[in-house]
Design brief:
By secondary structure, the chain is of the alpha/beta class. It has 16 helices and 32 strands. The protein has four domains: about 200 residues, 2-Layer Sandwich (Nucleotidyltransferase, domain 5); about 160 residues, ATPase, nucleotide binding domain (Nucleotidyltransferase, domain 5, 2-Layer Sandwich), CATH 3.30.420; about 130 residues, Substrate Binding Domain Of DNAk, Chain A, domain 1; about 180 residues, von Willebrand factor, type A domain (Rossmann fold). Bound molecules: adenosine monophosphate. The site of adenosine monophosphate has 17 residues, from helix 5 and helix 6.
Length: about 700
């Protein structure tokens, strides 16, 4: 049996660790120079290429055939590095680093290494995670799992002597060489749960270096009227990084720049460095507060802030944390080593699962991570005027998570129907602001009796935070073939254009859910109604359906104007409360329904939920009939003390009045949503969206 390791594949440095089987403790495997950290640097001026300290030394000596910082472009198919006349992708370069770490581990353990957990910034997208797995596999490893760096660090934090027995809420502030990640984590003796995550993968120590480089280059240029270019800048980069490190322990430091036949000597104080980079520190604060706000927390609700990543050695970071949280940051684990140690613990737990065995292990915890980016697809807006990103699985839900959504489309006569879906990651409705995962093409549709098919598409984040998608045709339950193609070069620009006619033929549906929220709904009925509403939304094709919310009792409240934005719909459902519109039943929703839907084109529905006997029934029936006359389909759902005869009178037809009980409310709503969707597929003329 081969050994298994944990790898922290860093932008600037990488670290490898394993769990010592005799002690159950994770241990760092040191490199040939007896260092825990190995520079993520490769020098191509020798064969085979040099990796780690030797490569970094070549870089220091001014050698240019040296690759570094390539993690910043991980997964970008257009990014190629050319060394010794050969092109390398960031994935191939990462493979060389992983191979090097694997060899280190094999020499140390005197055994073949076959399995690994690799860490990635929590903020990594599907494509970046997939590229990381590929890099590991190309290095000859079976990748047990990809976990996020802050989660791994928090796992290692649980190891330190005297780790708290009670549950703690901590913020992991991870500022490395090229990335910044924030994770809000709850940690107890048995479990580690990530509650929220934020980050910026274009922010890291390198940006602090860049500020120093610009500052020094400017002084040099002023002094000698000579510009620093090419190799001079490379050399300056190495020197400034050293200067930056010195400023972490000293108040001032000196740098000597030799270029273009001149030598300039400059002194930089820590205060000056802090002034040059104040906005970068502020940005990390803003992102941290976004993660806290996500869970309605503030700095004072935290038990502590754990600093991870080399750049947190800069005193300005500790000072920021002290300032905002009123407490010094947590210490106790080496920030360079924590991530790899956590990865080794996770590798052991994953190997136990794979082999159904148990190893001696200290720091064992059930870990639950969260999704860092919402998953969406490109759809056409309700008024058909533009494309929009329609969110399907929300950010900060636990990994793994999945959601099924129906999708309607018209089949072609000649049997070559295909549906092309563009999946995205991002929080914005604007397609220009999203990351595109690829073009997902569904083919091999089964023969069915009708021309319109409903596909139940399942979108999934797997245990590695990677996206999977599958679809079945609803009547036959037959799975469709799915092929993933790279994103065409004109995406996302093409989504700036007006959707063409072919893409807008699907008829839009607008539905208002109108809930009677009088006093009798207090407690379980309200909870059941919220669940039923959520179930309803999940059964709607939000690429063609807008949903709004109305609540009423004595008065009427329009809680949400119909929208295709799942986030807003779920949020409004959560905000439904009793008492805001009174507690009796003297009001009714039909004036509001008529007003809201009279100007809307496409198919229009109101689903009215009642649990009691309304006052002024005759008048309400008249108002409901006005809606029917305008072709607004009214579906009435009653339970508890609702009056069945009255419900039949307000519904558009007797089949559209349903009486149920509390335990079957979700099922009833789900069925209504499915029937609306299916009814639409028989009326409309929808091709695939593209
Ligand atoms: P990591 O990716 O976590 O290994 O972090 C590497 C980053 O930490 C690089 O930008 C380093 O320059 C930075 N770093 C390491 N040590 C120090 C230090 N003593 N002071 C300031 N930055 C440091």
């Amino acid at each position: 049996m081969g050994a298994f390791i944990g790898i922290d594949l860093g932008t600037t440095y990488s670290v490898v660790a394993y769990v010592n089987p005799a002690t159950g403790q994770p241990v760092i495997i040191r490199n040939a120079a007896n260092k825990a950290i190995t520079p993520s640097v490769i020098a191509f001026d020798s064969q085979p290429p040099l990796v780690g300290d030797e490569a970094k030394e070549r870089q220091l000596a001014g050698e240019t055939e040296v690759a570094s910082f390539f993690k910043r472009n991980m997964g970008d198919p257009h990014y190629l590095y050319t060394f010794a006349d050969k092109d390398y992708t960031p994935t191939q370069l990462s493979t060389l680093i992983i191979q090097h770490l694997k060899q280190l581990a094999e020499q140390h353990l005197r055994q073949k290494v076959t399995h690994a957990v690799i860490t990635v910034p929590a903020y990594f997208t599907h494509i970046q995670r997939s590229a990381t797995i590929e890099a590991g596999e190309q290095a000859g490893l079976h990748i047990l799992k990809i976990i996020s760096e802050p989660t791994a660090a928090a796992l290692a934090y649980g190891l330190r002597p005297g780790a708290a027995q009670r549950e703690q809420r901590i913020l992991v502030y991870d500022l490395g060489g090229g990335t910044f990640d924030i994770s809000l984590i709850s940690i107890s003796e048995q479990e580690l749960t990530v509650m929220a995550t934020e980050g910026d993968h274009q922010l890291g120590g390198k940006d602090w270096d860049d500020r120093l480089i610009a500052y020094i280059a400017e002084q040099f240029e002023q002094e000698f009227a000579s510009e620093l270019i090419g190799d001079d800048i490379n050399e300056l980069r190495v020197q400034t990084e050293r200067l930056k490190h010195t400023l972490s322990s000293k108040e001032k430091a000196e740098i000597r720049v030799h270029a273009a036949g001149h030598t300039g000597t400059y002194t930089v104080t820590r205060a000056c460095f802090e002034e040059l980079t104040r906005d970068l520190v502020e940005r990390t604060r803003t992102l941290s507060e976004m993660a806290l706000h996500e869970k309605q927390l503030s700095w004072s609700n935290l038990d502590g802030v754990l600093l991870v990543g080399g750049s947190t050695r800069m005193p300005m970071i500790g000072e920021l944390i002290q300032h905002v949280s009123g407490k010094p940051p947590m210490r106790g684990i080496n920030p360079d080593e924590a991530v790899a140690l956590g990865a080794a613990i996770q590798a052991t737990m994953e190997k136990e699962r794979e082999d159904d065995t148990e190893f001696l292990l200290v720091g064992r915890k059930q870990t639950t991570d969260v999704i860092a980016h919402s998953l969406g697809m490109i759809a056409v807006s309700e008024d058909h005027s533009r494309y929009r990103n329609s969110i399907i699985i929300r950010k900060n839900l636990p990994i793994p998570s999945e959601r099924a959504r129906p999708y309607m489309l018209r089949l072609r006569y000649n049997n070559d129907t295909h549906l092309e879906v563009y999946l995205t990651q991002g929080e914005n409705e604007d397609p220009q602001q999203c990351v595109y995962l690829g073009s997902y093409i569904f083919e091999q549709f089964p023969k069915i009796a009708t021309r319109e098919a409903i596909l139940d598409i399942t979108y999934r984040y797997d245990k590695n935070g990677m996206v999977e998608i599958s679809a079945v045709e609803r009547t036959t339950r037959q799975s469709l073939k799915v092929t993933v193609l790279p994103v065409p070069p004109d995406v996302p620009l093409r989504f700036l254009q007006h959707p063409d006619e072919q893409q807008t033929q699907r008829e839009h549906i607008t539905i208002y859910l109108a809930f009677d929220l009088s006093g009798s709904m207090q407690g379980d009925p309200l909870a059941a109604a919220k669940l039923a509403a959520e179930e309803f939304v999940n059964q709607c094709d939000l690429t063609t359906t807008s949903i709004g919310l109305i609540s009423f009792s004595d008065r009427v409240s329009i809680d949400l104007i119909a929208t295709q934005n799942a986030d807003q719909i779920f949020q409004s459902i959560q905000y439904l409360t009793i008492g805001r519109t009174g507690i009796e039943n003297s009001g009714h929703p039909f004036d509001a329904i008529e007003n809201l839907l009279s100007t809307v084109t496409g198919r229009r529905y109101a689903v009215v939920l009642a649990d009691g006997v309304w006052e002024h029934q005759k008048k309400v029936i008249r108002k409901a009939q006005k809606c029917h006359a305008q072709q607004i389909e009214v579906i009435a759902v009653g339970f508890g003390a609702a009056d069945e005869k009255f419900l039949r009178a307000i519904a558009s037809s007797s089949e559209q009045s349903l009486f149920t009980d509390l335990s079957r409310l979700s099922e009833t709503f789900s069925t209504i949503a499915q029937e609306i969707t299916e009814a639409n597929s028989q009326h409309s003329n929808p091709p695939g969206i593209f």
